[in-house]
Specification:
This protein is mostly helical and 98 residues long. The protein has helices at residues 23-28, 51-61, 66-95, and strands at residues 32-33, 36-37. It has a two-stranded antiparallel sheet with strand order 1-2. The longest helix is centred in the last third of the chain and has 30 residues, at 66-95. The chain is extended.
Length: 98
C-alpha cells in the first residue's frame, strides 16, 4: 500500500458555503451502522414483568439502561432458538436420511 496521502473532493471545499440541511433532507436520510441501513425504530409496548425480574435487569444494566438489556436478552433468545431449531433439524436429517 502506498504512503501517499488520500485526498477527496471535499479537501478543497469551503464547507461554510454548503447549503443548509432542510427538514426534507433529514426525512430522506438513511441512518446507517457501518454500511448497512440501521434497523427501524423500536416499537413501544407495555409489558407486565415480575418486580424481581425488573430489579435484576436494572441491577445488571449499569450504564446501558435496563430496557436495552431486556431487548438484547430477548434478541439473544430468539437467535439461540433459531440456531437450536436448525441444529435439531440437521441432526434429525443425518439420523434419518430420506
Amino acid at each position: 500500500m502506498s504512503n501517499a496521502t488520500m485526498t477527496s473532493k471535499w479537501d478543497d471545499a469551503d464547507l461554510d458555503t454548503a447549503p443548509p440541511v432542510t427538514q426534507e433532507d433529514l426525512a430522506r436520510a438513511v441512518h446507517r451502522v457501518g454500511l448497512q441501513p440501521a434497523p427501524g425504530k423500536k416499537t413501544k409496548i407495555s409489558i407486565a414483568l415480575d418486580p424481581d425480574v425488573v430489579s435484576w435487569f436494572k441491577h445488571q444494566s449499569g450504564e446501558r439502561g435496563y430496557q436495552t438489556l431486556i431487548n438484547a436478552t430477548l434478541r439473544e433468545a430468539m437467535q439461540r432458538r433459531t440456531l437450536e431449531d436448525t441444529l435439531r433439524r440437521v441432526i434429525r436429517e443425518e439420523l434419518h436420511p430420506a
